[in-house]
């Protein structure tokens, strides 16, 4: 692999620069809360793991429908707010 590709796919680098928020601002406080929730010790790999004895297709179908319903609810809420302010 070329040196340029190795730099692109380096795990220590990111395409988005890390944001720095000015202490005392609302964005800084929100960033702190978001980081605290992300570092709460929740193992996401375990949370999405297929439970023992469950059929993979059934498990995926249930979660896809749940995901669709949640996104639809969020979209409907945002769309109704947008219509109210027009």
From TrEMBL:
Domain of life, per lineage: Eukaryota
Pfam families tied to this protein: Mob1_phocein
This protein's name: MOB kinase activator 3A
């Amino acid at each position: 692999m070329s040196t340029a590709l190795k730099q692109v796919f380096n795990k220590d680098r990111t395409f988005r620069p890390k944001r720095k928020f000015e202490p005392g601002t609302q964005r800084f406080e929100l960033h702190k809360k978001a980081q605290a929730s992300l570092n709460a010790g929740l193992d996401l790999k375990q949370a999405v793991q297929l439970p023992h004895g469950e059929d993979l297709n059934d498990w995926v179908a249930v979660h896809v429908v749940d995901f669709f319903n949640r996104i639809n609810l969020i979209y409907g809420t945002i769309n109704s707010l947008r219509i109210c302010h027009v």
